[in-house]
Amino acid sequence: MTTSQSYNPYENMLQLLDSAADQLGLSPDDYISLRSPERELTVSFPVEMDDGHIEMFTGYRVQHSSSRGPCKGGLRYAPDVTIDEVKALAAWMTWKCAVVNIPYGGAKGAVRCDPSKLTKKELMQITRRYTAMILPLIGPEKDIPAPDLNTNADVMGWIMDTYSMFKGFCVPGVVTGKPIEIGGSLGRREATGSGVAFVTNEIAKKMNIDLTQSSAAIQGFGNVGQAAAYLLNKEGCRIVAISDISGSFYREEGLNIQDMIEYTNHHPHHLLEGYQAPGITTINNQDLLSLKVDFLIPAAKENQITSENAGKIQAKAIVEAANGPTTFNADTILNERNIIVVPDILANAGGVVVSYFEWVQNIQSLMWDENEVNDLLLKIMNKAFNEVWSLHMKYHSSLRMAAYMLALNRVVKAKKMRGIFP
Ligand SMILES: NC(=O)c1ccc[n+]([C@@H]2O[C@H](COP(=O)([O-])OP(=O)(O)OC[C@H]3O[C@@H](n4cnc5c(N)ncnc54)[C@H](O)[C@@H]3O)[C@@H](O)[C@H]2O)c1
Fold this sequence. Notes:
oxidoreductase; Rossmann fold; Glu/Leu/Phe/Val/Trp_DH_C; binds nicotinamide-adenine-dinucleotide; 17% strand; nucleotide-binding; glutamate dehydrogenase (NAD+) activity
């Protein structure tokens, strides 16, 4: 990872927000309240570990905006997560939900912990206690968590159960990304990757790149990276490089994605660590980012494409599957170098769109089939992509700026219609 000492994701988000507001000709009064989150909660709590000792954990839940509906956003587990990271991620959720025009605001949560060093029981205790601590903030009408880095359907199931125990009845709509058996939606697990594959297809068409003759490098091989790799590969794109936290794997003729997914399924921490196959070489994680490919897909975490490595990128387009992988300064360099960036708030919105479908099914006690889910997902992603593209053409702006303008305009309109309380 390229870590610039001064990098602050929230500052990064504010720079973009101010630029978009400027382009839209908004006055500070129109959007000043969007420069700060509506609510921030920091919690500290003890957990009895398997060996009997007590360990303290810190968690966060930040609600950036509820102007367009209940707050919505993932929960991440990471040892180095900061409140500014969570604040930025919460704001990105507000913009993302507005870009795809679903009736949510933005939120995000985190617990400072390293799941690779925890047993399943410890992870469950942490999740249950964290849920209890943030209980007053969450609920189907208030704020609905979902999976993010290092969290998954199991974690969502424990949150749903803990919340339901406090309420005294089953409340599936309190989280999305749950196991199917307890109210999860068909298609949710692959949804973010499906959206990434969809926008990669669309941008390929705009760039006159034949997807079946194209190549891609993917950083990150978790929930999102795996689904994106699988779907793009299925459509004929050659995935030449994939990395995870354990290393990067390269094969010019293309990697066997199914084999790699199966390998991670059997690894205790779902990693590619030790993966071997004919023709595969290992490369440096940084070198993956500068490979000569059609599409570079960062699907790991924020702050990966920085002013230090943006000049070395050789991909024709970057499709941001991760949240915030590109810094503000790196974005300027990429624009100057005419490298197209499909921004995170559009590219990875498939997950929250199907989370929305899951919530709709939960509150109506309905179950949609997978085709219904996928058809509606593609319809929404298609509309959002075209709206962003139209603004990009109209204002000769980057796709990121166009997406921010689309989102900000929607949120500001909602705020104006509601007025200021009291
Ligand atoms: N899960 C979702 O539905 C969803 C939706 C929208 C956006 N996102 C974003 O997508 C990104 C990935 O989320 P996820 O749910 O797939 O997480 P995950 O924990 O399932 O996977 C993350 C992957 O990134 C790898 N990784 C971490 N640091 C790395 C590094 N320095 N170099 C290379 N690989 C590294 C990990 O080993 C893992 O393979 C995050 O930015 C997340 O916020 C996720």
